[in-house]
Amino acid sequence: WGPRGRNLGDFFFPLLQGILERLDSGEVVIGDGSFLITLEKRGYVKAGLWTPEAVVEHPNAVRQLHMEFLRAGSNVMQTFTFSASEDSMESKWEDVNAAACDLAKEVAGKGDALVAGGICQTSMYQYHKDEDRIKKLFRQQLEVFTRKNVDFLIAEYFEYVEEAVWAVEVLKESGKPVAATMCIGPAGDMHGVRPGECAARLVKAGASIVGVNCRFGPRTSLKTVELMKEGLGATGLKAHLMVQSLGFHTPDCGKGGFVDLPEYPFGLEPRVATRWDIHKYAREAYNLGVRYIGGCCGFEPYHIRAIAEELAPERGFLPLASEKHGSWGSSLNMHTKPWIRARARREYWENLLPASGRPFCPSLSKPDA
Hints:
single chain; 15 helices; 13% strand
């Protein structure tokens, strides 16, 4: 045992601390990645509805994905409760939220990870904007998270800062730390509120961690977080920064993000980021001052491992999944073909411009909206 945890060679299990204690100390917290799109591909989630019944119907599938993220380096097991409010799931919402908490806690306990209870935007907001009714939906989920004693709370995937503020206000009632991430790009929320102002309003509502998740790829997401950071600095407000981007490249997105691309959701594979792209994303996020770094749709366990490996010098340890992964392709040194052995170096992979293998396809698309 070391001063902060348990060492197994170069692999390390940190002692459990709260999310704010970790971030306040400068520690890098690594989030998890894709659940909805990954489990849809694996046959456990239905596209269109995008609701998480799998925690009840196929708990082993959800448990396995949590385990893969944990082994890859995730410090946070987020409950699989996206769109799990009564608004989306009717009578099933309570059982789903409770089961999601149990699965996340079970896996987190195998690696001393934290558990975050997550809520997201409602379908009701766009049509009714009834603050009391919407807050009631958030409060119902919060009651389950409180009963299950999650470590902290995340309000994620909000297109409108007004609704995100309502979510933060409700989550703060628990007394637990609150993170808030919006699914916006540099143009701001769908009402035109700029990222810097969005961040300031979330912090004033009580969020200790702010940033973005989903809808946009690594580069665009980091640009939006940079604008949030500038907005907080201009108002004298302080908060920890968080980014959980898509695992897809989306330079051609409009304001609505990847959901408006013609490839969404079943033709996105050519846009998948390589592990080396995610090394760059992790380094740029760290240099920007972001200390909570993870992923969202399309962000697979090997992407999370890439974050953990890129930031291993700062963190002081590697994830368990690195036992089977040579740094920067170093394991290719044992290959029988010399031209493949020549790829066992960082410079090769950092400078590679990967081909798609699709000669008749464009490199960019035109959003449908």
